[in-house]
Design goal:
The chain is α/β, with parallel strands linked by helices. It is built from 6 helices and 7 strands, in the order βαβαβαβαβαββα. The protein has 2 domains: about 90 residues, Rossmann fold (3-Layer(aba) Sandwich); about 90 residues, 3-Layer(aba) Sandwich (Rossmann fold). Strands 3-2-1-4-5-6-7 form a 7-stranded mixed β-sheet, with helices on both faces. The chain binds glycinamide ribonucleotide. The site of glycinamide ribonucleotide has 18 residues, from α1, β5 and α6.
Length: about 180
């Protein structure tokens, strides 16, 4: 399993912890980042997990695929990875790439919808509930089949930050649970 990220790494940590406790039948075989200085990469380094940084640019797809193959990765978990995965990577891992989104897809997804932008959109739409979605990844943003959704209320007076914090608690439960379901 690998977690592709440029984020702070909290979902990576939740997945790794669930694997360590034996709640998910797998292990984080490689952490792939797009930049050296992300929180996720720093945490993974301290935790002693294998890391590779593959910077986007010329030959990104083949370089990424090569890193995944060398580590014998069999599932890909994205968390805070804001790009579309290169086509050759998707083709090499059919139905084996997952991502998490901090809203109830198909609402509030698509290109540019990540992090705080998502929570701002949920509040602007006047939703009375939000949550997170773990889903399969396709060549389009946020369009793959959902595996699992978890819900929480949106309260009057919520800010994007307060809503993000409530949803993040759910994310850390949802990603390991979705992995349990697909890895059985
Ligand atoms: C998570 O909240 C995840 O839902 C979001 O990025 C964050 C990464 O945090 N992803 C998206 O918005 C995708 N559209 P993390 O690095 O702490 O796991």
């Amino acid at each position: 399993m690998f977690v592709g990220t440029r984020g702070r790494g909290s979902n990576l940590r939740a997945i790794h912890d669930a694997c360590s406790r034996g709640e998910v039948p797998g292990r984080v075989a490689l952490v792939v980042g797009t930049r050296q200085d992300s929180g996720a990469i720093e945490w993974a380094r301290e935790a002693g997990l294998p890391i590779v940084v593959v910077e986007p640019g010329e030959g990104y797809g083949p370089r990424l695929l090569d890193a995944l193959k060398q580590a014998s990765v069999d599932w890909i978990c994205l968390a805070g990875y804001l790009r579309l995965l290169p086509a050759e990577v998707l083709q090499a891992f059919p139905n084996r790439v997952l991502n998490i989104h901090p809203a109830l897809l198909p609402k509030h997804g698509g290109k540019g919808m990540y992090g705080m932008h998502v929570h701002e959109a949920v509040l602007a739409a006047g939703e009375d509930e939000s949550g997170c979605t773990v889903h399969y990844v396709t060549e389009h943003y946020d369009e793959g089949a959902p595996i699992l959704q978890m819900r929480c209320p949106v309260f009057p007076g919520d800010t994007p930050e307060s809503l993000a914090a409530r949803v993040l608690v759910l994310e850390h439960q949802a990603y390991p649970e979705a992995l349990r379901r697909v890895l059985h």
